[in-house]
Design goal:
nine-stranded antiparallel sheet; globular; 399 residues; alpha+beta; five-stranded parallel sheet
């Protein structure tokens, strides 16, 4: 088990954890649902706050609260049912969390971590200042600044929103000055903060999940390879096919990145492997992450269970693989309408396949509706079975 204690470690289990058995989650989507499912075997009760009923976690939360997780009074309602409040999303208003923590509520990840993460330019600067390898980034206030950056970084480059960007939203590839006007307008240049990033001609995309406890101990999961389709994760294969040396480097970088942001809980560290063999940090998500869903079936202790353990101040479990290979494929919507599931029996009949349906009532193109994890004697076998099972399921209206 890869566990370490890092600098700045603090907040070990203390008297403020009365029973250690009440967890509040701000957000009620599929990540909250899987966190709650991981908490139940440990007899941890889970309260969830979401803006509307009928979300994936609403059926498992006790209690389920309707409210806005960006508003302090609603967060305080959640805290009244919780020993610790954690987050499903890194986009929750950090000042509201500041106020909640200042009132004595234990909030993990800490609001300071959210402040660092939410502005992706500041996130990149913090990583670079700590000596971690990243693509060079420059804040830009206008299109002239983009052209100046291009003179230094070269074309193409990436124009990115500093806040609230995910799954390719808020990003644009600018291949020459001819593309700049359209990209600037599409991303809201002049109205929202933007930055440019040096284009990375990568050979593959890697990810490492890291869980960091309140006392600084860490569980570092295996390196996985991810493949994106239309800027959304399509398939995750574990372990990655990169060399042992590259995997050790990626895990080391992930461990340091979790320390830089003073993480508590599970963190997704996304990385590029360049054609020259260099590992660069792409971005961090201070929460359980799509690239770690495979850990439910494939690892001794999943990213979800370890996140619950970490924020409650409990010892971390082993992140080691318990099978030779695993793969996860996302189930995405392709149409709009009611979320009727077709093909579930056929998918369940695929050897080694495990189907996770999130329970969303409506489907839309590109919406994450579930995922399939498959286990195998090799990562390649697992990937083939996961893809086979995924092709048998359609989530949408009547045939």
């Amino acid at each position: 088990m890869h566990t370490t204690a890092g600098p700045g470690a603090r907040d070990a289990q203390g008297p403020e954890l009365r029973s250690g058995r009440r967890l509040g989650i701000a957000g009620g989507g599929q990540l909250a649902k899987m966190l709650a499912q991981a908490a139940v075997p440990m007899d941890v009760s889970v309260a969830v706050l979401e803006r509307a009923d009928g979300c994936p976690a609403s059926g498992i939360a006790r209690p389920f609260l309707v409210g806005d997780w960006n508003q302090l009074p609603d967060l305080e309602r959640l805290a009244a049912h919780s020993d610790v409040v954690t987050l499903e999303s890194e986009f929750i208003d950090a000042p509201a969390l500041d106020a909640l923590a200042a009132s004595g509520v234990a909030v993990y990840p800490r609001p300071a971590t959210l402040h660092m993460i939410q502005d992706k330019f500041l996130q990149k600067q913090a990583l670079a200042d700590a000596g971690l390898p990243t693509a060079k980034s420059v804040a830009v206030a206008d299109k002239k600044a983009v052209l100046a950056a291009a003179a230094e970084l070269g074309w193409p480059l990436l124009l990115k929103a500093r806040r609230n960007a995910y799954d390719g939203k808020g990003n644009a590839t600018v291949r020459s000055d001819a593309d700049l006007d359209a990209a600037w307008e599409r991303l809201g240049g002049g109205r929202v903060g933007l930055y440019v990033e040096q284009f990375c001609d990568f050979a593959s995309e890697l990810a490492v999940m890291v869980t960091r406890g309140r006392d600084g101990t860490m569980a570092v999961y295996p390196v996985v390879e991810t493949v994106q389709r239309d800027h959304v994760c399509h398939i995750v294969t574990a372990p990655a096919g990169a060399s042992p040396a590259i995997c050790r480097t990626a895990q080391h970088i992930a461990r340091l990145a979790a320390e830089v942001i003073d993480a508590v809980g599970t963190v997704g560290v996304e990385m590029f492997l360049t054609r020259s063999g260099e590992v660069l940090v792409n971005e961090l998500a201070p929460r359980v992450h799509n690239s770690g869903h495979y850990t439910i079936e494939a690892c001794a202790c999943s990213q979800f269970e370890n996140h619950v353990r970490a924020v409650l101040g409990l010892p971390l479990g082993s992140p080691e693989l318990v099978v030779p290979g695993a793969a996860m494929v996302n189930l995405l919507g392709v149409e709009r309408g009611p979320a009727i599931v077709h093909g579930l029996p056929a998918a369940l009949a695929v050897p080694g396949a495990h189907v996770h349906l999130y329970g969303k009532s409506t489907v839309a193109p590109g919406r994450k509706m579930g995922h399939i994890t498959a286990l195998g004697d090799t990562p390649q076998e697992a990937a083939a079975n996961a893809l086979r099972a995924a092709k048998l399921i359609r989530i949408g209206g009547e045939p």
